[in-house]
Every structure is written in structure tokens, then in C-alpha cells.
Design brief:
Distance between the termini: 27 Å
Number of strands: 7
Radius of gyration: 17 Å
Largest sheet: 7 strands, mixed
Strand order of the largest sheet: 3-2-1-4-5-7-6
Order of helices and strands: HEEEEHEHHEHHHE
CATH architecture: 3-Layer(aba) Sandwich
Helix content: 25-40%
Number of domains: 1
Strand content: 15-25%
Amino acid sequence: MLNWAARYFPIMRILKSENLHDRGSLLEVGSGSVGIGRFRKVPFTGCDLTFPNEPKWPMTARVASATSLPFADRQFEAVVASDVLEHMPLDSREPAINECLRVANKIAIFGFPCGQVAWNADRALFERYVERKRTPPVWLREHLEVAFPTAQLFQGVEHWSVEHFGNESISFHSWLMNSEISPYFVLFSSSCLRIAPTLIEAGLRRMDRPPFYRMIFALRRRGQQSV
């Protein structure tokens, strides 16, 4: 779906800058059954609390909590956590970040809807589902249960450089998510993504303007190459 592309394409660009987009060990925390494997067609490890659907290649699935990852220190060249932290209780977010950094050798990438304005946009989306007499998805219900994370989560992180940038304007994100309520739009946009991914990516990059719905943070061990 187009909303997956909107949040994963920026992550793929960061991985490409590190020469990790098509090689190297990678862990995705909170991957679900597909995760980054929709766009990065090389083997990786995905972990989540549950896998309601059969995990798909190229993922190797592991059941695990983000706050207690069953992996060795610096086991993966890259760790990705995309739209995960907002689903976690407030007191679990910092431990989850620390675990991701523990198992990352080179880079850890976090993306999440950020701040009150983004939360308000999801509240409006929830109300739109109700107006259309459609059942809001589970992920959207979870978004409204707790405040969204902010950049303060990364203040005071030691031994890592932190860079961040915005992803998806609030207006574009709201339009996209309202559009994806329609299965016809999902079918059409998915077809466009398969046929012309480079063109779609260029269009999505133009939608990365403030006020942002999502922020993406790239943390590198000190001494590693910058974006």
C-alpha cells in the first residue's frame, strides 16, 4: 500500500547511503508479517510479539518483545523500528530504544508519528471510519490510547550521533489514509507502485514537508559515516 511506501522509502534511502539496502544483516523490530521485506528483497530478521499471518520471504521471524531482544550485542549491522514506538506504553519506549541500540552495530533507524498534531490527525481519521460505518483498524485504535512519542526520547543518548528529518505532511497523510479506506484506491495505488516505483517515490518525497506527521531518526555509532 502507498502508506507503507511513504514510511519505508525514506528508510531505504538511509540504508542505501550506508550500502545496506541490498546487503548486510538487518533486524526489524515490530515487523509484522512483511515489514521492510516488501521493499528490501534480501534476507533479514523480523521480530514481533505475534505474527497473525504467515511471515513472508525474505523475513526470518522471531517472536520477541522490543524491550528484551533475544540477540547478542551488535549482532546486526542495521536495526529498523518503523511505526512501533507509538504503540508502546510510555515507560517501555526508552527501554525499547536502548535494546535496539544494543543489538545494532552500525545504525539504528526509528520512524514514528510525532507529537500532538499528528495524534489529532489520527483522531480525525478514526472519526471518519465511524462516520462511514467502518470498523477502525486495530493499529488506529492503539494510536489513540497513548500520546505519540517526540524527539525528547533521543536526548542524552550517548555514543551515538542523531540525525532526523520529517516524513509526510499532515495534510498529505490525512488525505492518503482517508483514501485508503476505499479498497479501489488501495488496488489502484498498489498497481501504480508496482509499475512505476521510482516515479511514486519521487512524488512521495515532494509530500515530505512541514507540518510533519512522522519523524525519522537515524542513529549512528560515533565515527560512522553521516547521511
